[in-house]
Amino acid sequence: MAHTESDREDLIREAIALSPRAELQVPRFTVPVTVGFRSDGACSLFFGQDPVYQFDAAGGLRRAYVTGLLFRSQGDTLAQLTRMRTTEQTILQRVDLEPAALHEFRQQMTETLQLLAACLAAETVVIQRSHPEHAMILPQLQQSLSLILNAEPWLSRPVNRVR
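and the corresponding C-alpha cells:
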C-alpha cells in the first residue's frame, strides 16, 4: 500500500498479490501502464497513478481510482467513495453514481481500454520490466481486455464493504 494517497508504490516490486505483473511502455500513453493478474486471472490495470481499474475474473469492474476518486461496484452502479478524516477516524462517504454519470464513466474507461487493446494488436507495446522476469503477459493481457470489453454485466457483483 502506498504511504500517502498521492504517492503510489512501485507496483512491480510491491504488488505481490499480482503475479504475473509488468510495466509497459505504450506509445499512446504518456505514463507507464502497469498490468497484473491475481491467481484467479482477475486483471488490474494502472495507467500511471490514475486511472486504476481492477476487474474480477469474469471481466467485471470491481474497483477503480479515477481523477483522484475511489469507486466500488455495487452490482448495478458504482459507489463513489470519499475519505472524510477526523483526528479519531477515517470514514468513507458513499454516493452512488446516477445513470448518466455511470454511462460517462463506462465510456471513458472503455475508450482507454480500447486504445490499449489497439496498441497490443499493433504490437507496439514494450515490456519495460516484469515479475516473473520472462512472463508471457501480453497474450494474457489481450485475452483479458477482450473479456473485459465484452463483459455483460460490465460491473462485478457488489464489493464487500467489510473484509
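(Above: one complete record from the training split.) The chain is about 25% helix and 30% strand.
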